[in-house]
Amino acid sequence: MAGDRYSFPSEPKANPKAVVTGGRGSSYYRFSVLTDRLIRYEWSQDGGFEDRPSSFAMFRCFDVPHYRVAESKNSLEIVTEHFHLTYDKKKFSSKGLSVKVADDVWRYDGESYGDLGGTARTLDGAWGRVDLEPGVLSHKAYAVLEDSKSMLFDHDDGWIATRRPSRIDGYIFAYNGDHKAAIKDFYRLSGKQPILPRWALGNWWSRYHEYTAREYLDLMDHFKSEGIPLTTSVIDMDWHKVAIDPKYGSGWTGYSWNRALFPDPEGFMKELHKRGLKVTLNDHPADGIRAYEDQYKAVAKALHHDTSKEAPIEFDCTDRKFLDAYFDVLKTNLEEQGVDFWWVDWQQGTKTKIPGIDPLWVLNHYHYLTSKRNVKTIQRPLTFSRYAGAGSHRYPIGFSGDTQITWAGLEFQPEFTATASNIGYGWWSHDIGGHWAGVRSNQLTVRWVQLGVFSPIMRLHSTKSLWNSKEPWNFEDEACKIMKNFLTLRHRLIPFLYTMNIRASYESEPLIQPMYWNHPTDEEAYTVPTQYYFGPDVLVAPITSPNNGTTLMGSVRAWLPPGRYIDLFHPHLVYDGGRYMHLHRPLSQMPILAKEGTIFPLDAAPRLSNGAPRPADMTILLVVGQDAQFELVEEPEKDQNHQTDPDSDVQPALSSFVRTPITWSQSTGVLRIGPEWNGANRWRQWQVKLVGHTNTDVQAQVPGFRVTQDKNGEGCTTIALGNVHRWEPEGFEIALGRDLQLDVVDVEKRVFEVLHRCEMGYHDKDPVWEVVAKAEDEVEARVGRLLQMGVDAGVKNAVMEVWGADGRAEGSAKGHEVWADVVREGDGVEAIEEELKDYVLV
């Protein structure tokens, strides 16, 4: 494996026809016009330039764009349709190198710039917000990625390399608000996001706790008995010996099973596999391999290391022989026992014996390449580690670190996840529920789990504490029920998530995207940092503050782009877009809004099992009102049957995936499913749920199939088919009715529900009810009276949400809505959290 580990695809040398170079004396320059909106700039004192792949830039050979050059003895201009570069042929400076893009001018300063933010190496210890490194998107017409200090790889053998000192190397992204185009070219330059295996998209269990093997297996069985499916069992650092003789140092690093807790590691992991779970072990590698380790002598033999004095084998990722032994002796033996992949938990800084080499980069890169040897078990290469910088998206999955359990931490996490896409980093795994410190709160945990279900990776986690663990049944009954429902929903989302996984890799569209990606010219899209797109059509607006004490609902200020929207899972309200709305939900709900013309597939298995098998039962959530299309993508049959080639560096051809097109014609009322391409000879149960449509008598007709229909009072109409052969040569059609529309909101009914729920004086409810339901004067005047009432501001806004949601509704307040000033619901909790800081070691 060692030889294969150091080879990877790259094409780092730019097309010579795209290069403009020159210089004399002690000042040499080179510009590579990669596209008409992306240019690389380089300067050196010695006349040499870098054509090896960097940790960021792997593929610099683009088709040559149209550009022109104007040059004199002391000046150079490079002009494309989108930018105008001016350079004085001296060492780069703010006076001598500039690029004009639209009305903005960048002047060289040696720094990266992208003020829409990227991500950060870790959230370790974060109480709330942390500083973000720049991404490649900006409010300005340009962004800059400075690459002068990044690690290199030798193009011939794939081993790490260093840069020559004093050279300058960077990239200007001149995309002027075309955010998606910028990211697509970022991926072209740096490499695509790899495909994740299907199972990685389900629920992970993780806890820093001294489990015994029996306790851990019993816990997995308890999850099963509760009907909560899992895919991944994470074993934190107590899997290995921790209480070691002080003469060897600390027990933070370790590779020898703690036999007191795990007397039979092979049997333990075999039992986890029998339960349909993948296994990952935590590794803090910084202290190397000490003499007490079970594999000390084996690793020493591979390295010709003298063991007579029990000298430690130091961790040195810049030593190729050490890295070979680390992977091919130490970790191979553990993998043969049953470890599927590794959680690399590097926290020891950025320095190595070779200046400019970051150990986290080395660990991430070579762990990912080495994981190819396990693809018959894990389906696709995979590692689980921290973010090391631009280019880290090639080594999913990301571990974001040890967050503190605070409302401020929860509020920052959706923004942190979304802006990571601005540097191409699409697969964050957070400590859902928070890791340590803070306060116990049923509400906070539930809201965090809801966010986790609509995050890239769903991993419950907590620290070593008698009081802090995330098993749903350890919370109060209401919270437990909600958490179980959402964790079950996560597994029902896997068909959608896997399709988005393929879209992310092949179409450069990360699962989660900030609102401004799809609405770059709408200023409102930049003002809702906690709101994001979840796939192409669904908006998620997580609630990140406690419930209002009167309405018993949490709220969030959201911006809805133009169009009409409905909550996929609670479809009682229809929203006209093109404005801000304050959305209110009880603890059991969070806003998941889909626009008209959305198809959203779910696993409809009556009882979900561990792992992530392809579903034999499917539900299609259909939001009528506009044409819709969705292509369900599933892994190639050879991947599903564990026939993946471990020697392949290449992702499967897009044409090899199992694909099922699903289309809805609004005008004809026909939903077409299939035909399925590349699938095996199987049957599948289908049902269609018309979300938010109950007001017509849908007469579903499918020639040759038995169809049943149900209106269950939840705001949906469900059409169920019997078994359908997945190789129907032409697919099949369901005729539902022409030009179906979303139900019009019943304002009085929904306002009554809001007020009935409110914990407030009965006499205070009457005037609110009357101003909405009984007053006959103009809506604008009635809205004004509502705002003047002496009731809780949260009540006013919850009523206003319903009253102004749907402009089609009789008496709608759309266009007249005014939002009351609400004291932020989390302020009371944040005051407590602020006091607790004095008692927390940060």
From TrEMBL:
<protein>
    <recommendedName>
        <fullName>alpha-glucosidase</fullName>
        <ecNumber>3.2.1.20</ecNumber>
    </recommendedName>
</protein>
<dbReference type="GO" id="GO:0004558">
    <property type="term" value="F:alpha-1,4-glucosidase activity"/>
</dbReference>
<comment type="similarity">
    <text>Belongs to the glycosyl hydrolase 31 family.</text>
</comment>
<keyword id="KW-0326">Glycosidase</keyword>
<feature type="domain" description="Glycosyl hydrolase family 31 C-terminal">
    <location>
        <begin position="509"/>
        <end position="599"/>
    </location>
</feature>
<keyword id="KW-0378">Hydrolase</keyword>
<dbReference type="GO" id="GO:0006491">
    <property type="term" value="P:N-glycan processing"/>
</dbReference>
<dbReference type="InterPro" id="IPR000322">
    <property type="entry name" value="Glyco_hydro_31_TIM"/>
</dbReference>
<dbReference type="InterPro" id="IPR017853">
    <property type="entry name" value="GH"/>
</dbReference>
<dbReference type="InterPro" id="IPR048395">
    <property type="entry name" value="Glyco_hydro_31_C"/>
</dbReference>
<dbReference type="GO" id="GO:0005975">
    <property type="term" value="P:carbohydrate metabolic process"/>
</dbReference>
<dbReference type="Pfam" id="PF01055">
    <property type="entry name" value="Glyco_hydro_31_2nd"/>
</dbReference>
<feature type="domain" description="Glycoside hydrolase family 31 TIM barrel">
    <location>
        <begin position="194"/>
        <end position="500"/>
    </location>
</feature>
<dbReference type="InterPro" id="IPR013780">
    <property type="entry name" value="Glyco_hydro_b"/>
</dbReference>
<dbReference type="Pfam" id="PF21365">
    <property type="entry name" value="Glyco_hydro_31_3rd"/>
</dbReference>
